[in-house]
Design goal:
- The structure is a single chain.
- With 145 residues, this protein is of the alpha+beta class.
- The chain has a single domain, classed as 3-Layer(aba) Sandwich (Aminopeptidase), CATH 3.40.630.30.
- The chain is 30% helix and 37% strand.
- Strand 2 (40-44) and strand 3 (48-55) form a beta hairpin.
- The longest helix is centred in the middle third of the chain and has 15 residues, at 75-89.
- The protein binds coenzyme A.
- Coenzyme A binds at residues 21-22, 64-66, 71-77, 99, 103-106, 108-109, 112.
């Protein structure tokens, strides 16, 4: 389901799912603030979520997650496909994101979806008391004919 008007109502289920997916989770109020911005766009299902920022011809993936029991069934790939359709229809030319260098499932997901590495931020994440580098990934989106 595409989150558009009234998105703030989804802050709570998003925070619950986010906590199940990430070591450093975002609170309900984090999501309320994010969803209140006119630049935020997102998708949510019973088992997954994708939240992005959309400014002019660029989008950034802010967070994506699939509940552990539902993983490896193509759900995240399907969310990304919906994002690419949305982006192409709105003249978005580039989608970018940051991902921890040790997040093998996510790196594989993004590689399969056509993202390429465009940079690296040293020590970007704090995970279990250690700093972890982030890879910057980008995908160019061809415009709809
Ligand atoms: C990363 C994540 C969103 C993938 O969701 P998913 O629904 O399981 O992904 P899909 O089933 O669509 O898998 C697509 C591809 O991703 C890769 N992938 C998914 N899970 C993987 C795993 N456990 N190990 C290695 N590769 C994996 C595979 O290349 C897979 O393609 P394949 O099925 O042909 O092998 C999910 O593991 C997750 O929520 N992780 C925790 C949150 C997170 O790290 N988000 C990304 C932050 S940048």
């Amino acid at each position: 389901m595409l989150l558009s008007d009234g998105m703030v109502a989804y802050a709570e289920p998003l925070a619950v799912m986010h906590a199940a997916c990430f070591e450093r989770s975002w609170s309900v109020s984090d999501f309320q603030s994010l969803l209140g911005l006119p630049t935020t766009i997102g998708w949510i299902t019973d088992t997954s979520f994708l939240v992005c920022s959309h400014v002019l011809d660029e989008m950034e993936i802010l967070t994506i997650g699939v509940l552990p029991f539902a993983r490896h069934r193509g759900i995240a790939s399907s969310l990304l496909s919906q994002l690419f359709i949305y982006a192409a229809a709105r003249n978005v030319h580039r989608i970018f994101l940051e991902v921890a260098v040790n997040n093998t499932p996510a790196l594989s997901l993004y590689q399969k979806a056509g993202f390429r590495q465009t940079g690296c931020r040293r020590g970007y994440y704090q995970m279990s008391g250690k700093t972890v580098d982030a890879l910057c990934l980008t995908k160019d989106i061809p415009s709809d004919p």
